[in-house]
Design brief:
Layout (H helix, E strand, L loop, with lengths): L1 H11 L27 H20 L4 E3 L5 E3 H4 L24 E3 L7 H6 L4 E9 L11 E11 L2 H4 L3 H24 L3 E9 L2 E11 L2 E11 L1 H9 L3 E8 H8 L13 H4 L19 E9 L7 H12 L3 E11 L6 E9 L8 H18 L2 E3 L1
The structure holds phenylalanine.
């Protein structure tokens, strides 16, 4: 409801100087697309929860599912508890939305690992909306949805000869569980495990599947860093964790071509899906695109970040912006100033746009740029 929306806005748009949450995110917080059982994100969430509940019947360890934990979390939970170093790039206000000096909009569902373990849970799934400042194209949107899974194994270490043996066993269970999940979603596709790095797991892996003629990264996971488990009050108990992006999976499973569609309230989108069913999306006709270029000089390169520009474009154009592409970039040999040219591609998913209305938007983009970004438009 409107009143609820206002209350949520009050909790994310603060007067604090560190606050960098744009008004465009109003109306996204609290939409809870993943809690709608007949929305593609909800359908996939239900599938995965169902799979893990069934598996729990064989392991004897019940899985608890959470899908309405509030997305504003303490900075400590989002970063420090996960051993993400104080100077890690992901903490930068270029990448992360800060509410104030103590809270962020969670950048991943891993933000809930420590608190949930601390509550005494042994196996849980957390699904929720996560927020990152990012580029603009068909697969990137400042809000998306993740699902986190954690399981710890009380008593396992004691029953094995060494930590090494225990870790091996945890890794085996993790890989079995996740391959089973992938088969449930995609059928018996070709799979491969790729070694990777996360500050919060060791060893760490990505699972990839061969689908539609290409290798697709499905999730990140690993054996939990013992320090995280210890700090959550669980001592030397071994555990695993994984995290996956629901949009990425839904886009391939339902053949949804553009991430903006998940937010559409157009019945031609919403009416196509049914609880419990993975079906192929039938695109309604693509309306014509309209693009506008903007070029500008930057005096101090260090003072400008592309994400600041993307956010202005989002703020003005909203979901009419399909993508923003850097088409040209050079440094003037004499003055040393940098020049950039971006192409903003506008396209509505619901109707044809007129050149006149896009000119108005683009003019507003230019105004806001020269006001806020200290660049010289060309
Ligand atoms: N939080 C990680 C991400 O957002 C995913 C992850 C979760 C990796 C849990 C390992 C363990 O990319």
């Amino acid at each position: 409801t409107v009143a609820e929306g206002k209350a949520l806005d009050g909790r994310v748009h603060t007067e604090h100087p560190m606050n960098n949450v744009p008004v465009t995110l109003s109306g996204k917080i609290g939409r809870d697309l993943h809690r709608n059982p007949s929305h593609p994100l909800g359908i996939i969430k239900d599938r995965i929860e169902g799979y893990f509940k069934e598996r729990a019947a064989t392991t004897g360890v019940a899985v608890e599912c959470f899908d309405n934990l509030f997305p504003v979390v303490p900075i400590v939970n989002n970063f420090d508890d996960l051993l993400i170093p104080p100077d890690h790039v992901s903490r930068s206000p270029i990448d992360t939305y800060y509410v104030d000096d103590k809270q962020v909009l969670r950048t991943h569902t891993s933000a809930h690992q420590s608190t949930m373990l601390g509550k005494g849970l042994e196996a849980f799934l957390v699904t929720g909306d996560v927020y990152r400042r990012d580029e603009i194209d068909r697969t990137h949107y400042p809000v998306f949805h993740q699902m986190e899974g954690v399981r710890i194994f009380p008593g396992l270490l004691e029953s094995r000869g060494s930590r090494e043996e225990g870790v091996k066993e945890v890794e085996k269970d993790l890989k079995e569980a996740l391959e089973g999940m992938v088969v449930t979603l995609f059928g018996d596709v070709e799979r491969r495990w790729v070694d990777t790095y996360f500050p919060f797991t060791d060893p760490s892996f990505e699972l990839e599947i061969f689908y539609n003629d290409e290798w697709l990264e499905v999730l990140g996971c690993g054996v939990m860093q013992q320090e995280i488990v210890r700090r959550a009050g669980k001592g030397e108990t071994l555990g695993w964790a994984f995290g996956l992006g629901l949009e990425r999976l839904a886009m391939v499973l339902f053949q949804i071509p553009d991430i903006r569609l998940f937010w559409s309230t157009d019945e031609r989108f919403t009416k196509q899906f049914e609880a419990g069913k993975i079906t192929t999306f039938a695109p309604f006709s693509k309306y014509p695109p309209c693009y506008k270029d903007v070029s500008f000089w930057i005096d101090k390169v260090a003072g400008f970040n592309n994400n600041d520009f993307f956010e202005i474009v989002r703020g003005v154009g909203g979901d009419l912006v399909e993508s923003v592409v850097l088409v040209d970039e050079f440094v003037h040999p004499k003055t040393g100033r940098a020049s950039k040219c971006f192409r903003v591609n506008y396209r509505s998913m619901e109707r044809s746009l007129t050149n006149e209305e896009i000119d108005v938007l683009q003019e507003e983009v230019r105004t806001q740029m020269s006001d806020a970004l200290k660049v010289e438009l060309r």
